[in-house]
Automatic annotation (TrEMBL):
One of its GO terms (molecular function) is acyltransferase activity, transferring groups other than amino-acyl groups. This is Acetyltransferase, ribosomal protein N-acetylase. It holds the Pfam family Acetyltransf_3. It comes from Thermaerobacter subterraneus DSM 13965. It comes from the Bacteria. The lineage of its organism: Bacteria, Bacillati, Bacillota, Clostridia, Eubacteriales.
């Protein structure tokens, strides 16, 4: 069974090797690199990253797709701490034709439901204070600022002020939407 997390307008599915060329392409976009940095510059480097992510029980990588199946972005849960039941969220809508349309917010909400469904209690993220669109998206998806700090990792223009934002997760009635550790795959169930 393939994991599918449905939002109102997007579907999250496991990222596949066939999707990696899109990630490499998006990382060459200056608008993406400005705030997200650049992790890899070749398909081979992206494949190495993807293989490492698949082997890591503390890392979940999902494609953001339109209902048609077209991949328009990606979502990651990284540094999953199964003891504290929290993870860092990363997201990008890489395809510029779909930015600014609320699809990122829908993907963040779907990812939060998925995270609650696999037993996480909290998500956090780091966002550049200059990234107004992302801040608007995260706040609308229930994240709140917890602090401000300076960081320089993967930033082409040096140090940047960042907000740490947090969202508590509540499974509530049906909050996991039928998605639990077993549906997330053996890595999540075994790591729990």
């Amino acid at each position: 069974m393939t994991v599918q997390i449905r939002g109102q307008r997007v579907v999250l599915t496991p990222l596949t090797p066939a999707d990696l060329a899109w990630l490499v392409h998006w990382e060459r976009d200056p608008a993406v690199a400005r705030f997200a940095g650049q992790r890899f510059d070749s398909l081979a480097a992206a494949c190495t990253w993807w293989q490492a992510a698949q082997a890591d029980p503390r890392h979940v990588v999902l494609a953001v797709r339109l209902p048609s199946g077209q991949v328009i972005g990606d979502v990651e849960l990284v540094e999953i701490n199964w003891g504290r039941r929290e993870a860092e969220l990363r997201i990008r809508i890489g395809d510029p034709r779909y930015r600014g349309r609320g699809l990122g917010r829908d993907a963040v909400r779907a990812a939060a439901r998925y995270a609650a469904g696999i037993g996480l209690k909290q998500l956090f993220l780091r966002v550049d204070v200059r990234n107004v669109a992302a801040l608007r998206c995260y706040r609308a998806a229930g994240f709140r600022s917890r602090g401000r700090f300076t960081a320089g990792r993967r930033k082409a223009d040096g140090l940047a002020d960042m907000y740490l934002m947090v969202r508590a997760l509540d499974a509530g009635p049906g909050g996991g939407a039928g998605i639990g550790p077993a549906a997330a795959g053996p890595r999540a169930a075994a790591a729990d």
